[in-house]
Write a structure and sequence with these properties.
The protein has about 325 residues and is α/β, with parallel strands linked by helices. About 45% of the residues lie in helices and about 15% in strands. Bound molecules: nicotinamide-adenine-dinucleotide and 2-amino-3-ketobutyric acid.
């Protein structure tokens, strides 16, 4: 039996799409009492242990890390791509100052390991769009992507200069059923399921053929925990690992949904988010992740769609009953 004591964990941005599922998984793994969730919302009504915390408040964050003797810190607080284009100053403050606040506070309080997610948004118009490699041209066009690319380099810098053990993944678009979308360009692939089940139709803000790298949330959560538990000696990348699951376009997803809801209809009305999607690759090469810590995705388009529909249908059926 594993006698290693559970790490004391803080999750920042715990009420978001990734945060909710990751907190649940970490609590199941390490014990609820070892995993503190935090976000901007007040503590009232949140499942304990929970703290109201702004990631850009370095002083408050340092106090929390010291008071609870945090070992592992997950910083998931962010403003995603589409919302970031509407509020670039806010996006830079939360994404960049929030990361720097995390790194500095962690450096001075003995945090042993940090997780901070990057994104496929680090790629840009001159990246290889067919199959973006780990290293290659990166010229992000959004404030979100710029903050992620700069953030990756800050992570590498803190590792080199101060020996901080920081681990990071370039998540693809994530699809989950436990939280509503939070302002991303790939979020159509979450919203479509809610609309399909509730109304039988969806109007998509991307073109039918706009293929992007995507991943089902259970794969993303497993990847995060596997990377965080991987032996440090095996890790060769200290900026952020490419992470790949599947690749599909709105049309491909609509066709898959139609296998379960034959009357489902979709219309296309591309808006400003189309330009963001056009700047991202359709798939990425995650060879280093597979080689260094044996990453392997489990879900494809068919299995993800089937599982999403089971859960989204159950969610709305329960709502009707209550
Ligand atoms: P989300 O928007 O659903 O959640 C972000 C959370 O951060 C929210 O609960 C929000 O309240 C919180 N937050 C915002 N400002 C804050 C602040 N100042 N202090 C503390 N908390 C604050 O985003 P998500 O989808 O859960 O993304 C989590 C992380 O994963 C982000 O770093 C994001 O860039 C990255 N990521 C997500 C996706 C995706 O498809 N969801 C893809 C690539 C990368
Ligand atoms: C977004 O669309 O902004 C996010 C991402 C891919 O980082 N889902």
């Amino acid at each position: 039996m594993d006698q290693t004591p559970s790490p004391r964990v803080l999750v920042i941005g715990a009420l978001g799409q990734v945060g909710r599922e990751l907190t649940e998984a970490l609590r199941a793994r390490y014990g609820a009492e070892h995993v503190i969730a935090s976000d901007l919302a007040p503590a009232v009504g949140q499942e304990a242990p929970y703290l109201s915390l702004d990631v850009t408040d370095r002083k408050a964050l340092t106090e929390v890390l010291a008071q609870y003797r945090i070992d592992h810190l997950y910083n998931l607080a962010a403003i995603l791509s589409a919302k970031g284009e509407r509020e670039p100053q806010l996006a830079w403050r939360v994404n960049m100052e929030g990361l720097l606040s995390t790194l500095e506070a962690a450096r001075h309080t003995g945090v042993r390991r940090i997780f901070w997610p990057s994104s496929i948004a680090v790629f840009g118009p001159h990246s290889n769009h067919r199959f973006a490699p780990q290293y290659g041209q990166m010229d992000p066009t959004t404030i979100y992507g710029i903050s992620k690319l700069a953030g990756e380099q800050w992570c590498h810098y803190y590792h080199r200069q101060y020996g901080l053990d920081i681990r990071s993944l370039r998540y693809p678009g994530l699809i989950g059923y436990k939280a509503l979308p939070g302002g991303g360009t790939t979020d159509y692939a979450v919203d479509i399921f809610h609309q399909a089940v509730q109304h039988g139709s969806y109007t998509c803000f991307l073109r039918a053929d706009s293929a992007l790298p995507m991943m089902y949330m259970p794969d993303a959560i497993r990847a995060t925990i596997e990377l965080m538990e991987a032996p440090a000696e095996g890790l060769s990348i200290h900026s952020s690992y490419n992470l790949s699951g599947m690749s599909f376009s709105p049309e491909m997803l609509a066709n898959e949904i139609r296998r379960h809801i034959p009357t489902f209809s979709i219309a296309y009305e591309p808006d400003f988010r189309q330009a963001i999607a056009d700047s991202w690759p359709e798939s990425i090469d995650d060879t280093p992740a597979r080689a260094d810590w044996a990453w392997l995705p489990e879900y494809d388009l068919a299995s993800m769609t089937e599982d999403m529909l089971v859960h989204i249908r159950a969610h709305y059926a329960a709502e009707v009953r209550s």
